[in-house]
Design goal:
By secondary structure, the chain is of the alpha+beta class. It contains 12 helices and 28 strands. The protein has 3 domains: 244 residues, Jelly Rolls (Sandwich), CATH 2.60.120.200; 98 residues, Phosphorylase Kinase, domain 1, CATH 3.30.200.20; 194 residues, Transferase(Phosphotransferase) domain 1 (Transferase(Phosphotransferase), domain 1).
Length: 668
Amino acid sequence: MDMSVKLVAMLFLLVIASGEDTSFIFNNGFQSAHLTMDGISEITPNGLLQLTNGTRQKLAHAFYPNPIAFTPSSSFSTAFVFAIRPEYPTLSGHGIVFLISPEKALPGALPSQYLGLFNDTNNGNSTNHVFAVELDTIQSREFDDINDNHVGIDINSLKSASSTPAGYYDEGSRLKNLSLISGLPMQAWVDYDGGKKQVSVTLAPINVNKPKTPLLTLSQDLSHIIKNPSYVGFSSSTGSVSTSHYVLGWSFKLNGEAQNLVVSELPKLPRLGGRKQSMVLLIGLPLLSLCSIFAMILSIFYYMYRKKKFSEIQEEWEQEYGAHRFKYKDLYVATKGFKDRELLGSGGFGRVYKGTMPTSKVEVAVKKISHESRQGMREFVAEIISIGRFRHRNIVPLLGYCRRKGELLLVYDFMPNGSLDKYLYNQPSVTLNWMQRFKIIKGVASGLHYLHEECEKVVVHRDIKASNVLLDSELNGRVGDFGLARLYDHGCDPQTTHVVGTLGYLAPEHTRTGRATTRSDVFAFGAFVLEVVCGRRPIEQVNEEESVVLVDWVYGLWSRGEIIEAKDPNLGTEYVAAEVELVLKLGLLCSNFQPQTRPSMRQVVQYLNWEVPLPDISSSSLALCSTSPGLSFGKSGFFDSTTSSLPFYADQSFSQCSVAESFLSGGR
């Protein structure tokens, strides 16, 4: 009996404790808040809650330590002041989230587009019991169809139940836009009316009172979403761009309106400003001796030398792209003067160097491209800036560019594991297993699908191959070098037909017409798929007179019912036969001679994810290049065409107009 009394008393005390904590305010800093924090969150010396601290690919959580006793009829109100400060003025990632969760620990949560809330497995699960309001600075077409500066209400999923661009309504009920990545502090209010079953979200600049009209409203009964008890707090995550996320003050009230925060009493953010520069300026002084004159002359010559060394091309039209333009001097210092020891690789599009930016210490990859012709440069730079806005986990992020003399320099996020081809050929020291290869193939397919169908404009890659697929720290496959073929278009004579790409991956209609389409990308993807599964190049030279065409070889094994034998011997016995067979057959389907019969990348993704069955294939439906009219191969695997004698050498890139014209028309 005594034990029962004690148990009831403990439960009563818990209820009282939770009831006492239904209202709180932190207006003078978080030093005494005793928040429950994880990830990289911390309290700064002056009391700011700093969720992320200028890092990349990190997450952070901070929760009020005591549980809140939510009931089915509960209402709640919260107000907080936040600030998002990215490393670059126009690039950020990913955002701040106010959330209510049954647990203070969010096991398995991922950074980047998952905002520190969910992962691939639990995103969208009704068992999450998570309510969240996201202040997101990155457009993620996987989850939201709104722009990259938006507010969203999330129910158990990152696919927002409702979302809208960031802004606020002034006293005249006019909508004013807000930039979440301005670096300035902003106010946010989240209110839930348990009687009306309605959520409202309101934003305003730091010096504006709470607007009467909410920015976003949603009719939603949260009684089945929020468990009793639950915890309230914040989550934040970063992606490929270094960003700092702050909370300056916070108030919360259950069944009432949260207290207003006094702006003048909030802790101060770190000062905004550019890099401090220290320069020694020479002032005209009386020339007292020949030594001082000589020193001045040397200084002038040295200044002229440095100015010439780091001179850049910058025209008036580039002013609108200033935020995406890097200084040549910074890139020169980052790559240690473009020394060979920093060289990551070279190919048809130029040489790539590893670099560490001098101020931010961010690791980047810098690609130097020779481009003597100025024709089309404005259009190409505009395209580069457009590509820089792409956000997809299987696309290599392009951070910006620099122009100097006859060179164009492109700055990418650094991929630590390099290109895929070094894991397939030349007796690699590290061999990829089947699970890793299958994941890479699916990732590249997802990236191409994004370029073909999910961007504002259709983007045709035109050079899909293993050397253009880069691997991040988790061996995810990321598509690189997309759109760069257009640079060579601009450099060629517009009156001539030209083909850009790599022999062995070029679709037959592309070589005939010179026009690249999404279907020609699918053809190249087919060659890439066979390359990854078989561990062999699309065309391998046996001797001076003979070569083996990979698609022919796989086709022969398929026709004999032995297609599984095409797999890379290095896979050993650790593979899933059904997956290997699926991917090999898909590679043959994508390699069809007739472009209209190739699947789209949307269909390819569905096949790889087993969402729809692969169509039955037969020898009559597989019109491969080597067996199709118009273009034929001899036993050696070369084109046996009367219009050209140019052989298909494996892994040979070309982009010059004269070569392409000779290939297409037999010369001038």
